[in-house]
Amino acid sequence: MLTKERQAHILKVLRRDHRVVAKVVSQELGLSEDTIRRDLRELASEGLLQRVHGGALPASPAMTDFAGRAQVSPQGKISIAGAAAGLIRSGQVVFLDGGTTAVQLARNLPPGLEATVVTHSPSVAVELVEHRGVEVELIGGRLFKHSVVAVGAVAMEAIARVRADIYFMGVTGIHPQLGLTTGNAEEAAIKRALSQQAAETVVLASREKLGAASPFQIARLEEVDSMVVEAGLPEELIDPYRRLGVTVIVA
């Protein structure tokens, strides 16, 4: 079997089962596991899947840059943002992450809300310039251009000085076993720090992120309180998260 044929088969299995087990595929094709692992490495280098121990998972389409992510599930993100905005109460201190769903959340804050939003995202801060009741604390640092957020030691130091009531976390991958993941180690560290400084962490979970994985873990699912998903998702997609004790809020 030619390399392209093997790899096409692997991608077919991934689409069908939402995972690839190298041992199973090697037995199906009568090939060595080393051959299948080599194919998985090549497919991962092309961004077509995320390698994990023993096989692979779908790669998150949210791994693209900020402009590209804005084109992924736009209506789902708007509905998620609206539901998330309804969780905020006047007088709260809110951590708002970077990302396209967070920008939508900022746009959906009720006009009468009086709160403080702390963010490391210039994009989020700009969205809140005209909101009369929201004070904005912008965390500085080195700009990670891919996601348009501040990272690094300066950002970490600023985060450590804030105690927030609620944190709205953006991720690129959510998986029952692998937890919450993203594509950059520094960005993952910033998200962990924000979560640790908040009384409650809410994950903004558009459909394309569910069951997907990215290279760097942020946290286990048991470490967050809830996740907001769009309406109309199949129950089998959501149930594994409920079984882990995560409150699933359907927008």
Automatic annotation (TrEMBL):
InterPro entries membership: Carb_Metab_HTH_regulators, DeoR-like_C, DeoR_HTH, NagB/RpiA_transferase-like, Tscrpt_reg_HTH_DeoR_CS, WH-like_DNA-bd_sf, WH_DNA-bd_sf
Keyword Ribosomal protein attached: no
GO molecular function: DNA binding
Keyword match Membrane: no
Keyword annotations: DNA-binding, Repressor, Transcription, Transcription regulation
Pfam families associated with the record: DeoRC, HTH_DeoR
Name of the protein in its database record: DeoR/GlpR family DNA-binding transcription regulator
HTH deoR-type domain ranges (all copies): 3-58
